[in-house]
Amino acid sequence: MHSHMTGDSLDELRGELRGVNLELLELLSRRAELVERVRAVKQARGLPIHAPEREQAMLEELEARNPGPFPPATIRRLFAEIFRASVDLMERGKDEVLKVSRIAGRDDLVFRVKGELVGAGPVLIAGPCAVESEEQIEVAARELARLGVRFLRGGTFKPRSSPYAFQGLGELGLRLLEEAARRHGMVSVTEVTDTRAVELVARHADVLQVGARNMYNYDLLREVGRSGKPVILKRGLSATIDELLWAAEYIVAAGNVEVVLCERGIRTFERQTRNTLDVSAVALLRRMSFLPVIADVSHAAGRRDILAPLGRAALAAGASGLMVEVHPWPAVARSDSEQQLTPAELARFLDEVGWPHPAPRPVAVAGGT
Amino acid sequence: MHSHMTGDSLDELRGELRGVNLELLELLSRRAELVERVRAVKQARGLPIHAPEREQAMLEELEARNPGPFPPATIRRLFAEIFRASVDLMERGKDEVLKVSRIAGRDDLVFRVKGELVGAGPVLIAGPCAVESEEQIEVAARELARLGVRFLRGGTFKPRSSPYAFQGLGELGLRLLEEAARRHGMVSVTEVTDTRAVELVARHADVLQVGARNMYNYDLLREVGRSGKPVILKRGLSATIDELLWAAEYIVAAGNVEVVLCERGIRTFERQTRNTLDVSAVALLRRMSFLPVIADVSHAAGRRDILAPLGRAALAAGASGLMVEVHPWPAVARSDSEQQLTPAELARFLDEVGWPHPAPRPVAVAGGT
Amino acid sequence: MHSHMTGDSLDELRGELRGVNLELLELLSRRAELVERVRAVKQARGLPIHAPEREQAMLEELEARNPGPFPPATIRRLFAEIFRASVDLMERGKDEVLKVSRIAGRDDLVFRVKGELVGAGPVLIAGPCAVESEEQIEVAARELARLGVRFLRGGTFKPRSSPYAFQGLGELGLRLLEEAARRHGMVSVTEVTDTRAVELVARHADVLQVGARNMYNYDLLREVGRSGKPVILKRGLSATIDELLWAAEYIVAAGNVEVVLCERGIRTFERQTRNTLDVSAVALLRRMSFLPVIADVSHAAGRRDILAPLGRAALAAGASGLMVEVHPWPAVARSDSEQQLTPAELARFLDEVGWPHPAPRPVAVAGGT
Amino acid sequence: MHSHMTGDSLDELRGELRGVNLELLELLSRRAELVERVRAVKQARGLPIHAPEREQAMLEELEARNPGPFPPATIRRLFAEIFRASVDLMERGKDEVLKVSRIAGRDDLVFRVKGELVGAGPVLIAGPCAVESEEQIEVAARELARLGVRFLRGGTFKPRSSPYAFQGLGELGLRLLEEAARRHGMVSVTEVTDTRAVELVARHADVLQVGARNMYNYDLLREVGRSGKPVILKRGLSATIDELLWAAEYIVAAGNVEVVLCERGIRTFERQTRNTLDVSAVALLRRMSFLPVIADVSHAAGRRDILAPLGRAALAAGASGLMVEVHPWPAVARSDSEQQLTPAELARFLDEVGWPHPAPRPVAVAGGT
Questions:
Q1: Which of C38, C54, C78 sits opposite B81 (nearest CB)?
Q2: Which one of A139, C47, D68, D183 has the lowest number of neighbouring Cβ atoms within 10 Å?
């Protein structure tokens, strides 16, 4: 080995290196083609793309057969990188068929609900965690309308951890919400949790919400996809960004493209907040999909004192709107009392977020019914 | 303040705290009695139960009179919680208790399904991820029965991340599973994902399964609770132990105590495994509840090579059984191909786990039907 | 019980309820006082505040002794709430002694390094992951200075997962960084990982950095606290917000208040990003402490395409600055090549973030020294 | 494309992929040989090894010639990785391998410390969280020796979240531990946190421990690798299994193969336990490495009531030993009081775990040396 070392010409060696690089390039491309064919077979059979154990075995074989001079650890690392690139390729292939994907050049989705634009300027969806009584939702709607809020949320079928906790007013709540929204010219938003209730809820509400706990409830996703109403789809407690997009795909595949993705915080080890607001998800969802993305800062934080910075951050990351829980009397709310704002606090929140003060609807007209 | 600091004994202080706790308990009970009497009066007069404005005023008085050291916000929060409990009490009487809890001295739940004991010695639930064809489930059942397995699992309504992936054979799958189980004298186990399908699935299957993705689907929990069939309830991807118990409470509260809790791995940052098997959950669930606890090692690991140590660990932590995915030909399985065992691999798994070799059912008899 | 129901006067009952409420208030306050004394004892002995097992036992006793009519689950919930309030009280007590805490009315910390303000307007800290050669750091510094960047970062002692990966140029790197910074009138920032190297690094660098991997390295924290140099302290990979503040307390307690907290993403289950940028942490750190908070968006994202929205979000949440990795030729960088920007990309990033275009230093003057 | 899709067999495609992988391996090795020759020439002529500009140009050519289907960015990334590996190779020769890996057929590491086997039958490491006084450690050692425990742990330099909490007795603690261990014929185990203290600690203790908070403290890892003492390396709070193995590699690469890996629970969202014991990590570490693996159940659980099931689970998953905190009087311990066992509780724990009752050392003889 020593003899040729001194005799080597740097230029010749560099030429040889270049040749090897080009051979590697060709081989990598051949590999990528094979990988695409594997993907096609796997996709047809519904098999998972990623096969860690197979990779592990292949890595072991390569390490064992490595003639050097790269140390085994380097061979392992390089091939792990090549495998990862292949999985990326396979999954990107997969992405290309997704209806929710942002195809190059595709504009953001913008749609109207009762005249209100979604996906254009930022929207604010506010209201109590749950509809509790006629007076409560009426006061909430009136105060919110006064602040220029167009979207009135209120839970009527509440998914609660305990079967003994307040589960919402059900159909009565739906009617109260519907009437309050109509009186104040607002768009009503409420959650649906049961496939059997989709039709009922869709009769009363303008926008259906699928909650974080039901993001993987594919039967429900299909059903709301057939409801003809726009859907706000919340990210599951520990759902990946890809899973959220797949869940949206269920709705869109069922015929309904008016889907709004909602980041609402993910579960982490951190105890100071109820969940961890994931602004990277907002940014990535905007990049990966053409659907509008909003952020529910109330559920993310679980506390009132950082709602404004979180709201600003979500908008700065690209969110097309915010969802905030507002209750006329939060302390006596029947759920989520820790995180609901009073209407006065919402006004301060909007100031702190720098929300453009929308002209409130003339109450006379809206309330004229 | 300094003088008593050094003098304070932790044990004495704890004794005093205990005393105060018991006084609080008594006072809360007195309060609850008054609340019940208020309810009776209101009911007799047809008055509404919930009076948010009155509560709001009382909270303000309490906050004003608070001598500390609890900050006012804490006093507000604690009393709001007490008021909420009172409203709950008024609305539903006083007969509810946490039915899934292990009350002191309460024995483990043991029940029978088609003669097979659950909750006594460890049970093994095995079978393919999905029922794919008559031959596949028949071969699976035959091979499993030969190994002494009594519980045959097989997905018929599959919740899949992609709407375009294989979603199971549906009702056909139910019938194939039912027949295979009957031919081999086995208990059939299958997942139900839609409230509307519970009745159908319960007609064909012996045990219903609620998957991890549906653990928070409370409507479904209530419905399976009314089905009259035992239920295997899987822990959600990032559900806390408390949330799993509350989910079980939904089923039990609906009238069905035959619930088996299933740990199946939680979502963490670790990439080598699909999920992280949480054996502490197995141990704690056994301590906190009298319901049987099993572990699904296939979904926890997501790879075959560590199933045996995980199975041993789960049993060592107190699991009353294991669930394992077994497919006659895993490589061509339509889902989860990386983690399913062949029947031969299952035999080796059982050896490595040290599973007591149960006498296989005489095939002639079982298949005679 | 039935007899008095009808005879009850609503007003009398309400009066009694009010009385019980006030008794509860007094008892809760007594309890809180006891809790404060427990805290004093625990603090003196360095005992942990939270005792979940003891609480569990107490809850079981209370549940067992509950005379009704509150159901046991309610008693459990109410007392869990009371216990939580007590732990909060104990921990708030603890907070009050922290030097890093934001005492009511305390202004944000602002300090100067070589004339540059930190903690006032947003600062930008940029530079390559590692100092690799004289030419590389010189080109980087020159380009950055041209863009108005005042803080030049560059790793010289690199903590790497593999002992065989490039570990930095060490002392040579320190000198190259120092000279490049001096030539362009910039403030140099570099990481120190070993207590024994603090003195050396402090001789050459203007600002010391403690990396995420060393946030719990308390010996190092004490040592940088004695170095006389400002310190950037990065949050550990899965450190809680409280732990980060405690780590800062180590530095401040050693005599150095010029500490900058750096959020750099936490470890979660999400795979699309290297880490999850936690903007709630930025908001809460600003609220809980008077120290400046910055965000390292490069390590949070681990990819270039969402750096701008993350930068905007961090600033919107209250960050006093950003850290970004910039390399003249990222593709051939010896570490972190995926996430480093070129100077041209940094210029675009600053535009997208809406960064105020600072007047670049006159190069002649800066280089003249 | 459609024609071959349906015709493709997964097994055939995988065979072809394997072939391409082996060709890639050969080509990479050829490239590495060329790189070594380049290095020799450069070294002989005193030229710098790294030529970033040349690499940048080659990357551009490769990107331009890329025929797909890998996207250009992937080609750039893969070759950048290959170039980086080449520079690494040039800088350090070819003698490195991943020393901690379980090479096919390699036996488990077994070694002796003061006559006690590690890595053979399960070992028990027990003792107080911290050495607090001569009497405390003496009583602990005596009671533990009586139960047959051979490894006495005790913290002397304690890493604590708060700078104001008890930090250990330091050098005094080291001497107390050393003497107690000698009197009872035990092996002493204690943590070292500072590179500057390694020599001191190694003079007094038989086994050095690197704590979870310092797993990424590579300077410390190198230093304990040179200490000549066996090392227990704890997994970081959220360290991946791969990162733990790399950390071990630092120690082994520094010349010390006597490393014991310690799983001690990872950080998750679950609140019932302090950490989540990851038994999959135990199983995988055993498979991936030949080093002994133990589990610290005390820190994993953070509570006493599930230590026995966790201990059983860890052993069942393949652990070669357990670490348990035992204190003569846990209630008054200066740290971790909630999770330390009394010696009597340890005896019960060992029974419940089914630990083989080792013959306790004759105290007279052991203490006589």
A1: C78
A2: D68
Q: Nearest chain A residue to D4 by CA: give it.
A: A37
The three-point CA angle C77-C78-C79 to 5° equals 95
Inter-chain contact A309–C272, Cβ cutoff 8 Å? Answer: no
Most confident of B304-313, C89-98, C357-366: B304-313
Look at the domain A111-366 and name its fold: TIM Barrel (3.20.20)
CA dihedral D239, D245, D246, D248 (to 10 degrees): 110
Region(s) of chain D under CATH 1.20.59.10: 10-92
Query: Among residues of chain D, what percentage have pLDDT more than 70?
Result: 89
CATH hierarchy code of domain C111-368: 3.20.20.70
Distance (Å, whole) CA C160 – CA B120: 51
Of A237-241, A303-307, D89-93, the one with minimum mean pLDDT is D89-93
Cα separation, D265 vs A269, in Å, equals 13
Q: Which residues pair with A116 in a beta bridge?
A: A113
Q: Nearest-CA neighbor of A47 among A55, A56, A38?
A: A38
Residues of chain B in contact with residue A133, where contact means CB-CB under 8 angstroms, are 48, 50, 52
Q: Which superfamily is assigned to C10-95 in CATH?
A: Chorismate mutase (1.20.59.10)
Q: In which residue ranges of chain B is pLDDT below 70?
A: 1-7, 46-50, 52-53, 91-97, 104-105, 331-332, 337, 357-369
Q: Which one of B4, B25, B106, B266 would you mutate to disrupt binding with C, by most C Cβ within 10 Å of its Cβ?
A: B25
So what's the architecture of A9-96 in CATH?
Up-down Bundle (1.20)
Q: How far is A23 from chain D (nearest CA, A)?
A: 8
Whether residue C331 and residue D84 make contact (CB cut-off 8 A), yes or no, is: no
As a residue count, chain C comes to: 369
- The beta strand positions in chain B, using DSSP E, are 111-113, 116-118, 123-127, 151-153, 187-191, 207-210, 231-234, 259-263, 293-296, 321-325
Does residue C249 register a pLDDT over 50?
yes
pLDDT tens readout for residues D219-237: 999 999 999 999 999 999 9
Instruction: Assign a CATH topology to domain B10-92.
Output: Chorismate Mutase Domain, subunit A (1.20.59)
Cβ neighbours for B79, distance < 8 A, ≥ 6 positions apart: B58, B59, B62, C21, C24, C25
Interface ipTM:
0.79
Identify the pLDDT of residue C341: 95
Question: What is B111-367's CATH topology?
Answer: TIM Barrel (3.20.20)
What pLDDT does B332 receive?
A: 67
CATH 3.20.20.70 region(s) of chain D? 111-368
Tokens coding A105: 């050049």
Whether the pLDDT of residue D129 is over 60: the answer is yes
* CATH 1.20.59.10 domain residues, chain C: 10-95
Cα D285 from Cα D280, distance rounded (Å) = 8
Spell B274-298 as b/e; 16+ CB within 10 A means b: bbbbbbbbbbbbbebbbbbbbbbbb
Q: Which of C3, C6, C20 would best serve as a mutation to test chain B binding (most B beta carbons within 10 A)?
A: C20
3-state SS assignment for residue A203: helix
Positions of CATH 3.20.20.70 in chain B: 111-367
pLDDT at A121 over 80: yes
Question: Measured between CA atoms, how close is D217 to chain A, in angstroms?
Answer: 21
Query: Which residue from D159, D275, D270 is spatially nearest to D213, judged by alpha carbons?
Result: D159
Residue pair C230/C208 in contact (Cβ under 8 Å)? The answer is yes
Residue A144 tokens read as 């919110």
The pLDDT confidence band at residue A127, using thresholds 50, 70 and 90, is very high
| Burial (CB count within 10 angstroms: exposed 0-12, middle 13-18, buried 19+), residue B324 | buried
User: Model pTM?
Assistant: 0.82
pLDDT value at D177 more than 70: yes
